[in-house]
Design goal:
Chain lengths: 124, 856
């Protein structure tokens, strides 16, 4: 369940960080969506997780409805995992790795994300 | 890493038919091969002559009830591709070359090592002269239903030939398409296979009461041109019936054409002959589902087909398998809204068997219990009118449970000491879900492995995910077994709060708690919460303190609808419903709605709640739209909130010749007072100006009906899924007393109801019932009256239009952006025009849209 694992899937030297928006664009304990060269990235800001101030970046498209709505779901914690509930049909996705708890085949893409000073950055 | 040294030739498996059973076989096979790590060693081909991938035929009729092909599909669109299974849809297999082990298809040849036939059945149409075109429709596939829908356009009357299970379902479909429906049956009773004579008669009475014509013992001789309708069906007895379309549902026949052509053994009454391993007369070929004949019988239900599919999948995967040894054909259905059940030997055909019968002619209910010659066990049953007896009877029959001393108690109306079979009386081997072959023992195993949640149980065992008929029993067994293990059946809100909503409400109010964080820290677990407790607590905080829901501390708690103060639609856009109190609106305001809708190209519809809904706005458009609406004097309608929706009114004494009070005036006053009140669920009102009740107030949570002397107050009515008439709480109230009484009633509900409990369900769960409610609300027996009124006044005083509040604050608006780093709208939102307005594009239409269309 540790979130830090997925942030290190690539060797650190090869990671390029890219700023998507600023800290002020985020909404604490909730999500916003950023545009990334044709992809839609939902950004969730959790100021007080066990590992401190954290941002998570996860694909915005809900696989069940095909609508771009994940960024508008409710953040929660189920059995220790931080999750986002899709606002349309309420299935849950793990913020750490995008796995859907109810339908494992509906996995979402996740990006490593961090707060760097005022910038919200994701690696890709 | 295990390295494979010698490349193993992969086995080629071909499955003909992508229906329910064929698909289940693939799923089972994939699961097993994945489990063994050998999926890669198989090349799997699936052929389906229908265009759609496998769908839920059992629920086919819901296609007329609004479900589309996609939602009926049995798997995600990419399921096959993801597992390397090659699906050839819209491709028919036309022959099998058994010597060369190849199937010949409309798209070419495909070799196989082993072949599975899952070709299902086809509807039988008796050879009647003139049965063609719209006088020869059938009811089996999605395409058939499209055909019926097309034929029904412009038609007035429809006839179904065949009064069996499917025929009645088809009649219901015709009714739902707005046609006058008739059923013509050759036998002297309905559902001749499943029901006995009295059962058939009871069903006929019920169905005729629904306005469906039932014509028994009728053989159609020919179909000719009609005089009043398109066709005339001439019966053998000289009588006739005219109609615009005819659906044949006179039975199904196993689709065994391929087997016949390639010389496999076929049963006397059709069907590919199979043994207990579902193997045909050619050892390389299996047959499963409705096309297979086992021991001389074919099985027209999905559960036996699924069992066959599992048997074959296990063999193909090289696992030990359970042979197929027949299946139970008991069924439980709701036909045209009437419960019908048939178990085992429904006709009492077993020599020496004895029957008990219960007949209630007043309600056309009928029940028959057939017991074994020694009187010890149940061997069959028939139910018409009430299926609540079914689960218990089926368990008695399937598991040979010994009958109680007074067997008739099993079918007597409940309340007369009926010995309902508790979940504990079931043996471990009792089948709970026949679709997925889940026994009580398997449920217990899951519980012992730590499953405490019904959803998890369903995911782990698939129980309840087939026809759905076992859901109630499954829940009962699950909860009973949990309780038996000392696991208190958990009434907790969720894993973060071990309290019910009522308890949390009490805590919040007594301790004056103002935030979710504070409540979680003091009374909950963890420090995040989830999508169950956050909105529930958000609603409690709002009911108690009525702070603007746009408050930054409240925002993360709410569902998207509350967060963005609009209702999310299936494509991620929103609908906008301004308040139109009492349904009264000036021409100027109507014009503004029209102008705004036009400017933002919003689909516009009059709602069932006497107001106007504007659909299709994107997130970033909401503030602009609301800015214009608020400037024109509108305020939010809370269509998104668990809160007051509408107060429906009739025009009342101001215009109507019968009106005795000003119902519009009262509706406006009430809507103005309670707008914005957050509650466990939505609340709806109706105010009628006289006893003719044009505002349908008695179907509302709060119904107010004018009398000569004042107002009668009704409470706890409901439309929706489980309609309930409201009950009279107080009579002849003056305006002030009316408002005071409603204050008390609503606050008492807000305080004590469970999460997402409408007033109707809450009222039914109140101990002491209506009398208790009258005591508390009207006679103030708890001495709470003044407190409840004061609480309501606080909420009323703090009311502020949420949209007006948000528009004043740039900080609150910053979230109303589709993208925080880009101005564009969502490029994946596409619309098409229909009847002069736009609507979301359907998945199947997407490729038709030129890319340039999107200029948002
Ligand atoms: C728009 C409207 C249908 C229409 O085109 O007319 C509608 C639309 C929805 N209804 Fe309704 N209901 C609408 C009138 C009704 C009525 C008729 C009435 O109010 O007189 C009923 C039956 C009366 C009743 O509630 O007792 C009704 C019973 C429901 C129910 C079932 C409630 C129940 O207790 O069984 C739901 C589901 C729920 O609330 O859990 C529901 C839920 C919904 C939802 C919220 C479903 C959803 O989650 O997306 C729909 C969202 C609307 C939107 O996006 O704007 N809607 N719904 C009507 C809006 C009325 C309004 O002006 O606010
Ligand atoms: C309206 C309706 C309601 C029903 N309700 C219930 C119910 O409540 N409970 C219940 O248990 N059962 C019910 N059934 C029956 C249930 O749907 C069937 O038992 C089940 O679908 C059988 O599955 P199958 O795979 O054997 O056949 P099908 O689902 O019919 O699938 C066979 C598939 O094979 C295809 N096919 C045939 N020949 C070829 C070929 N040569 N090449 C390629 N493809 C081919 C067909 O086009 C079809 O798609 C209902 C059926 C209908 C129509
Ligand atoms: S508007 Fe109401 S009845 Fe219509 S589809 Fe939506 S929820 Fe169902
Ligand atoms: S019996 Fe059909 S889903 Fe359980």
């Amino acid at each position: 369940m540790s979130q830090s694992n997925t942030l290190r899937v690539q060797p650190l030297e090869t990671v390029t960080w890219r700023a998507l928006c600023s800290r002020q664009d985020l909404v604490a304990h909730s999500g916003v969506v950023a545009w990334l060269d044709g992809e839609q990235v939902a950004l969730f800001h959790l100021p007080d997780t066990e590992t401190g101030d954290q941002v998570f970046a996860i694909a915005n498209k809900d696989p069940k409805s095909g609508a771009n709505v994940i960024g508008r779901g409710i953040v929660g914690q189920l059995k220790g995992d931080l999750v986002i509930a899709s606002p349309l049909y309420k299935q849950h996705f793990r913020l750490a790795d995008g796995t859907c708890l109810e339908y494992p085949e509906q996995r979402l893409r996740v990006w490593p994300a961090r707060l760097n000073g005022d910038a919200v950055e994701i690696a890709h | 890493m295990n390295s494979i040294v010698t490349p193993i030739k992969s086995e080629r498996l071909v499955i003909v038919g992508n229906g329910m059973v064929g698909h289940h076989c693939v799923e089972q096979l994939v699961e097993r091969l994945l489990g063994r790590g050998t999926l890669g060693l198989h090349e799997i081909h699936v052929y389906g002559e229908e265009r759609q991938r496998a769908y839920d035929r059992v629920h086919l009729s819901e296609y007329f009830g609004g479900r589309d092909a996609e939602s009926l599909a049995l798997c995600e669109a990419d399921y096959y591709a993801r597992h390397g299974v090659q699906a050839h849809l819209g491709v028919q297999v036309i022959d099998i070359d058994r010597d060369r082990r190849e199937v010949i298809t409309t798209a070419g040849r495909q070799p196989y090592d082993r072949l599975i036939l899952a070709t299902g059945s086809y509807p039988f149409v008796p050879p009647i002269a003139g049965a063609e075109g719209n006088a020869r429709l059938v009811y089996r596939t999605l395409d058939d239903l499209d055909g019926i829908r097309a034929a029904a356009a412009g038609a007035r009357r429809g006839v179904v030939v065949g009064g069996g299970l499917l025929g009645l379902e088809a009649a219901n479909a015709l009714k739902s398409l707005g046609l006058e429906a008739h059923v013509v049956e050759f036998a002297p009773r309905l559902m001749p296979v499943q029901l006995d004579e009295q059962g058939g008669a009871a069903l006929k009475a019920r169905i005729e009461a629904l306005g469906v014509g039932v014509h028994l013992s009728r053989a159609t001789q020919e179909i000719i041109v009609g005089e009043e309708y398109a066709y005339r069906m001439a019966f053998q007895d000289g009588d006739f019936l005219e109609t615009d379309l005819i659906v044949f549902s006179a039975g199904i026949r196993p689709q065994d054409a391929l087997a016949r052509r390639c010389g496999l053994d076929v049963g006397a009454r059709g069907g590919v002959v199979v043994d207990n391993d579902c193997r045909t007369s050619d050892p390389a070929i299996f047959a499963i589902g409705e096309c297979a004949a086992w021991n001389g019988s074919v099985f027209g239900l999905v559960a036996p087909g699924y069992t066959m599919a599992r048997t074959v999948a296990a063999q193909l995967a090289g696992e030990a398998h359970t042979p197929f040894t027949g299946a139970d054909m008991s069924t439980k259905l709701k036909l045209l809204g009437v419960d019908v059940g048939s178990i085992g030997d429904a006709h009492g055909a077993t020599p020496g068997s004895k029957s008990y019968r219960f007949i209630d002619e007043a309600t056309a209910s009928y029940r028959r219990l057939v017991v074994s010659p020694d009187g010890k066990t149940v061997i069959g049953a028939v139910l018409v009118g009430d299926n609540s007896y079914y689960d218990t009877l089926l368990q008695y029959a399937q598991n040979g449970i010994k009958l109680p001393a007074e067997p008739s108690g099993l079918i007597l109306p409940a309340g007369e000491g009926a010995p309902a079979l508790g979940a504990d009386a079931l043996p471990d081997t009792a089948t709970i879900c026949s679709c997925h072959n889940v026994s009580k023992g398997a449920v217990c195993c899951q519980i012992d492995a730590g499953v405490t949640d019904l959803g998890e149980l369903k995911a782990a065992t698939k129980a309840g995910t087939g026809c759905g008929g076992c859901s109630a029993l499954l829940k009962q067994v699950f909860e009973h077994e949990l309780a038996a293990r000392g696991v208190a059946v958990d009434k907790s809100l969720c894993e973060h709060f071990a309290y019910t909503r009522q308890e949390l409400y009490g805590i919040v109010r007594v301790e004056g708690i103002q935030t979710f964080e504070a409540l979680l820290a003091k009374h909950g677990r963890g420090h995040v919460g989830c999508d169950i407790c956050k909105p529930a607590v958000g609603s409690i905080l709002a009911s108690c303190w009525n702070k603007p829901i746009t408050d930054p501390l409240l925002i993360p708690l709410q569902d998207t609808n509350d967060t963005f103060m609009a209702n999310m639609q299936k494509n991620g856009t929103y609908s906008i419903v301004p308040r139109i109190a009492g349904g009264e609106i000036t021409p100027d305001k109507l014009i503004v709605l029209g102008q705004v809708a036009k400017k933002y190209d919003l689909y516009t519809k009059i709602t069932g709640g006497q107001r106007i809904d504007l659909f299709g706005a994107q997130l970033h458009e909401l503030p602009d739209i609301w800015g214009e609406l608020i400037d024109a004097g509108f305020e939010t309608g809370h269509a998104y909130g668990k809160s007051l929706r509408t107060v429906k009114s009739c025009v009342g004494s101001t215009w109507c010749r019968y009106g005795v009070q000003d119902s519009v005036g009262m509706a406006l006053r009430l809507e103005d007072r309670y707008k914005g009140l957050r509650s466990p669920h939505k609340i709806k009102f109706g105010v009628s100006g006289c006893t003719r009740e044009c505002a349908e107030a008695q179907s509302k949570d709060i119904g107010v009906i004018a009398t000569d002397k004042g107002w009668n107050l009704y409470v706890a009515g409901n439309g929706g899924m489980r309609p309930r008439h409201a009950e009279l709480l107080a009579t002849d109230l003056d305006d002030e007393t009316l408002v005071r009484t409603i204050d008390r009633f609503l606050m008492f509900y807000v305080r004590t109801a469970d999460k997402l409990q409408r007033t109707s369900v809450w009222r039914e769960s109140l101990e002491g019932g209506l009398d208790y409610l009258k005591d508390v609300i009207v006679h103030d027996s708890l001495g709470l009256g003044a407190e409840l009124e004061a609480q309501m006044q606080l909420v009323v005083d703090r009311y502020e239009c949420e949209w007006a509040n948000a528009l004043k604050d740039p900080e609150k608006l910053k979230r109303f952006r589709t993208f925080v780093n880009d101005e564009r709208g969502d490029p994946d939102v596409h619309f098409v025009k229909e009847r002069g307005q736009r609507r979301p594009v359907r998945a199947s239409e997407l490729h038709l849209i030129p890319v340039a269309e999107e200029a948002l």
